[in-house]
Amino acid sequence: MPNLMMTSKLPLEQWISDAVAWLTQNWAGFFNLIQQLGQGVMDGLTGFLIAIPMPLMIAGLTIIAIVTSPKKWGFPVLVLAGLGLVANQGLWNDLMNTTTLVVMASAVSLIVGIPLGIIMAKSVKTEAIVKPILDFMQTMPAFVYLIPAVAFFGIGVVPGVFASVIFALPPVVNFTNLGIQQVPVALVEAADSFGSTTWQKLFKLELPNAKNTIIAGIKQTIMLALSMVVTASMIGAPGLGRGVLSAVQHADVGSGFVNGIALVILAIIIDRFIQKLDTNPEQVQAVSHGNVRKWIVWGTIVVIALGGVVNGMMSQKATGKKVNIGYVQWDSEVASTNVLAEAMRQHGYNVTMTPLDNAVLWQSLANKQVDATLSAWLPNTHKQLYSKYKNDVSVLGPNLKGVRLGLVVPDYMDVNSISDLTNQANKTIVGIEPGAGIMAAAQKTIDAYPNLSGWQLQASSSGAMSTALDKAYKSKQPIVITGWSPHWMFSKYHLKYLEDPKGTMGTTENINTVVRKDLKKTSPDVYKVMKKFKWSKDDMEQTMLEIQNGKSPEAAAADWIKAHQKQVDQWFD
Amino acid sequence: MPKVEIKHLTKIFGKHQKAALKMVKENRSKDEILEKTGSTVGVYDINLEIETGEIFVIMGLSGSGKSTLIRLLNRLIEPTSGQIFIDGNEITHLNKRQMLEIRRKKMSMVFQNFGLFPHRTLLENTEYGLEVQGVPAEERTRRAEAALNNAKLLSFKDQYPSQLSGGMQQRVGLARALTNDPDVLLMDEAFSALDPLVRREMQDELLDLQANVQKTIIFITHDLNEALRLGDRIAIMKDGQLQQVATGEEILTNPANDYVRSFVEDVDRSRVLVAESIMVPGFTANVDTDGPNVALHRMSKEEVSGLVAITKQRKFLGYLTSDEVVKARKEQKSLRDVVEPMPTVTPDTLIADIMPIIYDAKSPVAVVDEDQRLKGIIIRGAVIEALAATEGDEHNDA
């Protein structure tokens, strides 16, 4: 048997990349059309949902819950209390954004999935082809779908929906197929013997009989779409997912749970309402005044919708020049982006902040889907990304000078240089998100220093890293982390950078502002502000510490702006 | 001209049909063909003529191809070869659309397990056949209600099938088939899933109906009694092939071959000679718990004039006549006081020996095992019939 490792490796990665690149180039028009249409529909729907006055919506949904579950108090109380809690936590708009994402992803999945399930049930050949594809789709980790989604549709809610659809489609297809195939042969024979056409059989016998199975599939699909909300937020899908993701990156238990609970409440409400559709006819018969109930439900829905329309017309659209600032959820960037966004809002700009993974952020700048970012660490940390996209973006220069990266240890450890490391801390360097520039530098360092052979670079998130550091610090355990300053941890703990004689972790560098190539032409004002935005390491650490001590980023940014009004005003001259 | 005519109708399931056909012609058995070719012979070379207004019964054991045959008639199963004519028009080569018309107008089917749609009310089930034809709602409701009315189920029209008994469901199945006003009614073991009493009722209803509407009914069953009650003519099938087509009387008197002969004999002659083979379950009264009122109620319910008395331990005691039980009720006695003696035999007593016992007895004879437990009772008619049959046999052998 030939050794597989000896034969040359199949260029599988290359093939897939080429295929996606070909699609992206040749179908660009089609993808852009979908992206624009989708974005328009989603923005419309979200705008409409947000325009509905919150109390009206909560009251309306509670009334519907009361009417649809007579004599049961649990569900209406859950709707009222749950939605009230979400609103109280200030997550209402996020909830509406998430609802839009779930509704669209579910709707597309059902529109594609139910007919596909029917075709599968009717044709053995189709089933043989589609079934393995569905199994493949379901077992592939959902993250993988984000990559082509970004390549095709860029960032935002449309690729989120695209990835969610691929992930959530299989159950509804499988259940539809199963439900139709499970209709007893005797009934199908009966329908045939009376001369039903294929369509008549489908609509009069098979679908009504398969209804409950199909609804079970629909529920699964909706739940999967919900679970994709968090994943999709990595590529800029707005909503509760962002809260969860940011909580993971900052290891913020409280905020993670609050966002999670809001998602749970949404899931339960959707699940219960779908459950109401799952009836058998005899029960319906037993419920008297069925018509009255129906009228109340529809009436309530109409009132809610009217509230949205009226309020939407009355409320002023947010005006001002639009700007979309992309950032990565590192503590440093959260601070700078919030400060600039807050300042620009005060000067009448309509600012959107889009949290993204670092690599996706650069890609989005190159694709002109994000206007600017304040978080390019150059020349070393983001070297790879910069060299990949340098022709498609413009670097406006540093907004903060003198940052430093390196391997960082607590000062109770008796190593001072990277060359001193032998077998401390289980030969592990605790890192952050795998896509971050500092991780590439750390890997390079491990490869460059002979004493680091056998060391591991452990990827996690910036939040998880600071949690690990906190734990080790309190128990005086050795730990090596990928650290950078400005960072609040230097004011919270006694830490030291390890000397880097080979210079692989980079010397001091700057954080730069990078904007899309044509920003100067299309939005000169925004361009000017971006060009002028500058602040110092101390400014940043001040803001970071406030956030670390429990202030919301917006509030911390507002505080800093109040204290530095002059400096801020200079950005807008 | 016959209503339905079938010529050389054959259906083979599976691959290698040619090889299977060849083996059928060589008279190989079904199992052998399946083993050699992997194909199953559904039916082979069926030739039949069925007249208008006839109830034509097709009988056979399970696997004899009778259900396949009936489904070939309305082409729920496509024939491998052969022709089917209805009113002289061949339907075997019709396309899908034309076949739909035939199914909608000419033929309707009633199924063993009723085949009612669980998500539709009785009325919606009954009008289904008209609904797929696109008949206006008012007219189809009118016709469906008339059919339900005939089946005495109109008051249940808004109920769902699961809320009804089996007999009621089958009436709906029949009403649904009749609503289309078809020429030919195909009934696939329509009464086999019902309990015996309801089954008799339905058979009577079918005969009444046939007296009124004169449909051509093709009725499938595996029950000889049902076939004899309903069938104007009976066809007996084995392994997909017809054995005999004749009236019930002819089949009983003149079986075409050994298979038919053994098929129509309810009982094996060699076992007729002992008590066990002709006894029937007896209706009993438990003297330790039942009183005269219960006993009388049971007699009227079961339509008998006497009961076998047993104890709580199911031991045999004797016989209770209706006269004695009535007396007991008047005189406030218990059943134990009015038990009369009853002749008993063991299960292996020869019939010839039972004859004199039963001749003198006023009551049936009880069959009792060695533990004094009641196994069954023997009534006079059974003994006489058994004796007549054995004598006939001896006569034939002589």
UniProtKB/TrEMBL annotation, chain A:
The keyword Membrane applies. Keywords: Cell membrane, Membrane, Transmembrane, Transmembrane helix, Transport. The chain crosses the membrane at residues 45-66, 73-92, 98-121, 142-169, 222-245, 257-275, 295-314. Its main location: membrane. Residues 95-274 form the ABC transmembrane type-1 domain. Gene3D superfamilies: Glycine betaine-binding periplasmic protein, domain 2, MetI-like, Periplasmic binding protein-like II. It is found in: Cell membrane; Membrane. The keyword Heme does not apply. InterPro entries: ABC_Gly_betaine_transp_sub-bd, MetI-like, MetI-like_sf. SUPFAM superfamilies: MetI-like, Periplasmic binding protein-like II. It is a multi-pass membrane protein. In the C-terminal section; belongs to the OsmX family. In the N-terminal section; belongs to the binding-protein-dependent transport system permease family. This is ABC transmembrane type-1 domain-containing protein. It comes from Convivina praedatoris.
Automatic annotation (TrEMBL), chain B:
Belongs to the ABC transporter superfamily. Residues 338-394 form the CBS domain. It catalyses: a quaternary ammonium(out) + ATP + H2O = a quaternary ammonium(in) + ADP + phosphate + H(+). Keywords: Amino-acid transport, ATP-binding, CBS domain, Cell inner membrane, Cell membrane, Membrane, Nucleotide-binding, Transport. It comes from Convivina praedatoris. It is found in: Cell inner membrane. The complex is probably composed of two ATP-binding proteins, two transmembrane proteins and a solute-binding protein. The keyword Electron transport does not apply. Its EC number is 7.6.2.9. This is Quaternary amine transport ATP-binding protein. The keyword Membrane applies. Residues 21-264 form the ABC transporter domain. It comes from the Bacteria. It is a peripheral membrane protein. Gene3D superfamilies: CBS-domain, P-loop containing nucleotide triphosphate hydrolases. One of its GO terms (molecular function) is ATP binding. Pfam families: ABC_tran, CBS. InterPro entries: AAA+_ATPase, ABC_osmolyte_uptake_ATP-bind, ABC_transporter-like_ATP-bd, ABC_transporter-like_CS, CBS_dom, CBS_dom_sf, Gly-betaine_transp_ATP-bd, P-loop_NTPase.
